[in-house]
Amino acid sequence: IVREVSDGIRPLAERRDATLDIDVEFEESAQVTADRDQLGQVFTNLIENALKYGGTGGTVHVSISPEDSRFPGMIGVSIKDNGPGIPRQHLHRLTERFYRVNAKQSKEQGGTGLGLAIVKHILARHAGELDIASVLEEGSTFTVWLPLRKLS
Ligand code: ATP
Ligand code: MG
Question: What would the DSSP string read from start to end of 109-141?
Fold first, then answer.
């Protein structure tokens, strides 16, 4: 799904002079049950954000996360940018509808401020989680966690 949606996003990456580095492989043992279109929307919103707010000439890296004891039995796909990062006090509000860290910048970038609220909503429907980590002047990592399908 990540690879499918990334084709549609490459023109944005080119306009931003950014590198979109998709590093995900299909793994037989790591499957999830999900709505394909909705998960496509999740990855589209997160990769577009990483490109929009990651600064020009940056790199957006999409990869499978190492296991994390906070999310047992789940698989994580992380979208990492090397942009300016997000000040700590904003992190817990990012998924609120219409919430923007920098109103002026977001106005220039366009959009409505709904992208992350939609991500949160879709992940909730999949019993998933969104984990956000950010370091100022280093960048942000948004990780999508989804329950692994139990293969018998
Ligand atoms: P829309 O997604 O509707 O086009 P938007 O991108 O402004 O608009 P969200 O995707 O919900 O809305 O993001 C909310 C805000 O979070 C953004 O306006 C931006 O301030 C901040 N943000 C999101 N992703 C990043 C990121 N990767 N780096 C820095 N800031 C980010
Ligand atoms: Mg957005």
Answer: H---S-HHHHHHHHHHHTT-EEEEEEETTTEEE
pLDDT given at position 115: 97
ipTM for this prediction: 0.99
| Residue 28 confidence (pLDDT) | 85
Q: Ligand 2 being an ion, which residues bring their Cβ within 5 A of it? A: 49, 115
Q: What are the structure tokens assigned to 102, written together?
A: 């920098």
User: What CA–CA distance (Å, rounded) separates 4 from 124?
Assistant: 22
List all residues whose CB is within 6 A of at least one atom of ligand 1. Answer: 45, 49-50, 53-54, 81, 83, 86, 94, 99-102, 106, 111-117, 140
